[in-house]
Amino acid sequence: MALDWFNLDGKIALVTGTGTGIGAGIAKALARAGAHVACHDRGDEARPTSEEIRALGRRSIALSADLSKRAAQDGLVADALKEFGRIDILVNNAGMIRRAPAVDYSDADWDLLLEVNLSAPFRLSRRVGKLMIEQGGGRIVNIASLLAFQGGILVPAYAASKGGVAQFTKALANEWAVKNVNVNAIAPGYIATNNTAALRADETRSRQILDRIPAGRWGVPDDIAGAAVFLCSDAARYVTGHVLAVDGGWLAR
Ligand code: NAP
Question: Ligand 1: distance of its center to the CA of 48 in Å?
Fold first, then answer.
């Protein structure tokens, strides 16, 4: 039956940045679809999400790693494998944003954003993708942004990092499709999370953004979670190298 195609029973997922926002929504939705989930965050923040998942009857562990540090990126995969022995689904969700005019944009912020938003997802995909190839298949979902397509305002490093995420998604998909490892990205629209707190606090920008969203509302993390479940499921078995906008119609306008 068609609904079985969305079933993730017994799959092992590693999701980054699950303490809050989109990552928490995705981790819990994967678990509701049947997956066991290694929940990551920078410190202790993934613990409540992990506890909610265990309450659903799935296995879960809370892992911490500062993804600006390469040794911690490598350690995260090792920790997930130590607990579960395999990884069927990787969701590279953790990310950060720093706003400043381009002429004032510091090297430190540029380097930090490129490391956390672009290099960490690539390095995690490289490590986990190798395992998935050995295992005979897997799913990788990278969380990009509308700023993979547009330049944004005051966010040059963020736009550069998310453009890079969309491109390496396609590059890995081309190599790994034949190995049954599908690599896709989601480009969320404007979602009410910590990431957009400053924008929502700015009355003018907040109104300008809302006025431009065809759906007439900001998104919420669960709006993204359904798309993630789809891309991780058998229903999306012939979908790879795709950047799926989940944006209330923003890009269509
Ligand atoms: P969020 O609530 O700020 O979540 C971001 C998560 O990433 C947090 O758990 C954060 O942990 C974690 N993180 C950041 N830097 C980290 C680091 N160095 N090491 C480990 N973890 C780190 O924002 P969100 O909106 O849910 O963002 C999730 C993803 O969606 C991001 O990649 C973001 O760029 C993308 N996105 C969001 C929107 C939107 O409108 N909200 C739109 C497009 C794309 P801490 O809490 O410890 O910082």
Answer: 16
